[in-house]
Amino acid sequence: MHVRPPGPPSGAAAIPDSQGLNLWRADPELARLARLYLPAGLAAHLAPHLDRLGALAGGELDALAAQADRNPPVLRPRSRRGEDRQSIDYHPAYRSMERLAFGEFGLAALSHRGGVLGWAAPMPPAAKYLLTYLFVQAEFGLCCPVSMTDSLTRTLRKFGDPALVARYLPALASQDLDALHQGAMFMTEQGAGSDIAATVVTATPREDGTWSLQGDKWFCSNPDAGLAMVLARREGGPPGLKGVSLFLLPRVLPDGTPNHHRIVRLKEKLGTRSMASGEVTMNGALAWLVGAPEAGFRQMADMVNNSRLSNGVRAAGMMRRATTEALFIAHRRTAFGRRLVEMPLMQRQLAKMLVPTEQARSMVLQTAEALRRADAGEEGAYALLRILTPLLKFRACRDARRVTGDAMEVRGGCGYIEEWSDARLLRDSHLGSIWEGTSNIVALDVLRAAAREGSLPVLRAHLHGLLGNGAALPEALPALDRAIALAEAAQGDPALARQAASALYHLTSAAALAWEAAQLGTPRRLILARLVLQHRVLPRDPLQAEPAELRSLLDDPGAEEGALS
């Protein structure tokens, strides 16, 4: 006899549930942007892979992420026989996600070699970040080891000895998890977080050309990685940053024996619980010098800036997932005889989430294109990249905290329950404003890029190119002049750094949205650009009523998924 499972209480409607929603199909704007920012052939080639990843992110991958979040890694200091064989136990769900990220989709490899996802050449940054943008909508924690592996590989290829590159590149870019060497970076010390000049971990040269490291690193994510970049102070070196060098630390030495560093304990974190972070004591571990001895911080900054860009991508992806969930609910939940999306105040709340979500996405793609051009050696591209990266990291990571919180509120009391994605998104969203530099540090890096790289004139020229004659956004160019002047003033008064960075971010994202609207023929993105200017840049009277037609912006993410509508 078939027994029907119990439904919601009599007279009540079931809570809208997006489980199984294909997050690629739920976001048709993303497909249009992919065709805009990628070469036509690559965009067409990646479309089925993005579709598969979108289905995973809304289904199986999301379920794995929830399992791994509830079952964090555990440090095993010794084997059961008492042998000093340190290991970290990960939940099988985390291992399954690794097979998807590092294996099937090759997220850490596709920038460094051909053959990933059937594409013969290394892919441009926009391709990697489009895939990551979808992946992170389900799982944030694992994206940190993926990003560090990718960034370590990039830094090693740029600055490392050719023999080291030849030895480790195949393992770093492997899609075979048995052969893969994941990457990490060990920078933070108790007395040296953002202040790298205060580094006290020491490096002593050995006769065989390696170095012996001593001291403790306080916050090391992916601490059991096969390779880590480490900052340490050279014995006998000068004080300050010039005495700090960059080293490559292997988990296993070339002769197959374990290196000497040890994981002291794992951290119990607010978010990213699926991924291990811990304290590491160097204990005389052997490492190789990377690049010029006195350029350690500058070389590590290359890896940090790449990770900051990845942080911005992850913040953008989390905002999109949060907004998708809120829109899905608003189109299906009824109260007082109407769907939530039909209520003007809810429309305003959803639009306040959608605007920063779309700003961040456009900034990700603009920064990815700047990275591609900089790597190709195009004039002015590196200066543009150097300012776009901290702008994205500073503002998008802060916006993600608010957007994920507002999305939780749309779901109501259920959003506060760990069974749904909202709580995990909210916890994870707070990470971006802390790792790879807090908001103050990153806002000051915007000023550093302006002073050292001459980035402001390059940014001005770039935005003029996006805006053309300015007819679509007539207020933008005069506001840009004022924002540039504010950033120049901030170099003499650092207290203005955050204000200046926010102004430049909002104007850059508005210009990008307007350019995309013109290229794609989508007025919707121009409406978003105007909302950015109206609410984030231009002066306005907080007591003046501002009626606005917002309903046209609030597409139903489930419209492509008939079974879920």
Architecture overview:
This protein is of the alpha+beta class. Helices cover 50% and strands 10% of the residues. The protein has 16 helices and 13 strands. The strands form 4 sheets. A 5-stranded mixed β-barrel has the order 4-5-11-8-7. The chain is globular. It starts with 27 loop residues before the first helix and ends in a 28-residue tail after the last helix.
Mean pLDDT: 94
Total strand segments: 13
Taking the sheet with the most strands, its summary is:
5 strands, mixed, barrel
* Global outline: globular
The share of residues in extended strands comes to 5-15%
Annotate the secondary structure layout.
Layout: H1 28-37, H2 40-57, H3 60-70, E1 74-76, E2 87-89, H4 92-104, H5 125-135, H6 143-159, H7 162-172, E3 183-186, E4 202-205, E5 211-214, E6 216-221, E7 227-234, E8 244-250, E9 262-266, E10 277-281, E11 285-290, H8 296-332, E12 334-335, E13 338-339, H9 344-375, H10 381-411, H11 421-429, H12 439-453, H13 455-467, H14 476-490, H15 497-520, H16 523-537
Parallel strand pairs: 3-7, 4-7
Antiparallel strand pairs: 1-2, 4-5, 5-11, 6-10, 7-8, 8-11, 9-10, 12-13
Helix pairs in contact: 1-2, 2-5, 3-4, 5-8, 5-9, 6-7, 6-8, 8-9, 8-10, 8-11, 9-10, 9-15, 9-16, 10-11, 10-12, 10-13, 10-15, 12-15, 13-14, 13-15, 14-15, 15-16
